[in-house]
Automatic annotation (TrEMBL):
Protein's UniProt keywords contain Transcription regulation: yes
The organism of origin for this protein: Duganella rivi
GO biological process: DNA-templated transcription
Name under which the protein is recorded: LysR family transcriptional regulator
Pfam families, sorted: HTH_1 (PF00126), LysR_substrate (PF03466)
Recorded GO MF terms: DNA-binding transcription factor activity; sequence-specific DNA binding
Membership in a protein family: Belongs to the LysR transcriptional regulatory family.
Residue ranges of domain HTH lysR-type in the record: 1-59
UniProt keywords, alphabetically: DNA-binding, Transcription, Transcription regulation
Gene3D superfamilies: Periplasmic binding protein-like II, Winged helix-like DNA-binding domain superfamily/Winged helix DNA-binding domain
Length: 299
């Protein structure tokens, strides 16, 4: 039995919650992974995992073994990295995930420069406004907006984005230009961005001096993807609040008109997030630093 391989296989099953997912991310047959863990359990003379047709659960002994071996695996990765990083440039497969507007308008246009600087890194990018499971989906990091609440994750703030409240000239001609956010509650409709977690329309937030307002308004349409949300606003489906970097070309062309500019909400923070129990590889480290430089240019 290769004990180190068996420990890594066991850890991946615990993190993924599935033998099949763990085998896929490790690039090994499901039968080989199962045999490896069975040999580890026989070696330890203790049951680590309980497997049913629907799910995998960790025994109390398995949870204790996972916690202790994770520290050992991290120390081993740190030792390996301290030698390899000094002798080679960043290389390998980097799996990242982010929202669609950030991917299409910020990261992908700049990515050729990153890959030119680090030609030995291969990037796979998941693009969706829905949050992924970093551990279960075997993602190295995600770029997320908003405050972090999951204590199992580590996040480095890389920048922030300003908001703009806007509508098309035709919409404003038909409904009037509001002078105060409260006017959006009467006689106006909102093109809402829908939360991918709750499915509910997010309120439009406003701040001026010490006063803060959250306006829900009457919904004309709700969209749960950022590029489609912008398209809804451009179609004249209502007042929208979106990131200024996304709306900038349409504001410049006059297709969208900014309103309530004195009522500016707080900028929206963006983080590069990764699991607290995962070693930060050299390739992930350089990506995080590059993302920080990139997001520093956001308006």
């Amino acid at each position: 039995m290769d004990q180190l391989q068996a420990i890594r296989a066991f850890a991946r099953v615990v993190e993924a919650g599935s033998f099949t997912k763990a085998a896929d991310t490790l690039g090994m047959p499901n039968a080989s992974l199962t045999k490896s863990i069975q040999q580890l359990e026989a070696h330890l003379r203790v049951k680590l995992l309980l497997r049913t047709t629907r799910r995998v659960s960790v025994t109390p002994e398995g949870a204790q073994y996972y916690e202790k071996t994770q520290r050992l695996l991290k120390e081993l990765d740190d030792v390996d990295a301290s030698f390899s990083a000094a002798q080679s440039r960043p290389r390998g497969h980097l799996r990242i995930d982010m929202g669609s507007s950030i991917a299409n308008l910020v990261v992908l246009p700049a990515l050729p420069a990153f890959l030119a600087r680090y030609p030995d890194i291969r990037v796979d990018m998941g693009v969706s406004d829905k949050h992924v499971n970093l551990i279960g989906d075997n993602v190295d990091c995600v770029i997320r907006g908003g405050e972090l609440t999951d204590l199992s994750l580590i996040g480095r703030q890389v920048g922030s984005a300003s908001w703009v409240t806007c509508a098309t000239p035709a919409y404003l001609r038909d409904h009037g230009v509001p002078k105060h956010p409260s006017e959006l509650e009467d006689g106006h409709v909102i093109a809402h961005y829908l939360s991918t977690r709750t499915g509910r329309g997010l309120p439009l937030n406003f701040a001026k001096g010490g006063e803060k307002l959250a306006i829900q308004g009457s919904r004309s349409v709700g969209v749960n993807e950022s590029n489609a949300h912008l398209a809804a606003g451009l179609a004249g489906l209502g007042v929208m609040q979106t990131f200024k970097y996304a709306a900038a070309p349409h504001l410049a062309s006059g297709a969208l008109v900014p309103i309530l500019e004195k009522w500016q909400p707080e900028p929206y923070p963006f983080y590069v997030v990764f699991p607290s129990n995962r070693y930060v590889s050299n390739r992930l480290r350089v990506f995080i630093d590059w993302a920080a430089d990139l997001f520093a240019t956001l308006d």
